Amino acid sequence: MSKGFHTVRDGPIPGLRLPRNAWAALERAGITTLDQLTAVVDRIEHVAALIGPETAHAIKAKVARVGRSTEPQS
Fold this sequence. Notes:
Blueprint: E1 8-10, E2 17-19, H1 20-28, H2 34-40, H3 44-47, H4 53-70
Antiparallel strand pairs: 1-2
């Protein structure tokens, strides 16, 4: 399997698997927690350098999924 720039992997935010380039961009922007990412996810392509529209869409979808999985069950 490729270990390339777009290989999906775990990073500092548990449960969120993103391409290596996305993790690098988030790190450069100082985003290391789900709370930080959730606060800026709607404008992530403007906050983190080198995040293109496809990667931004993937991050938004995965943050929404991770957020739903951490909500308390009623």
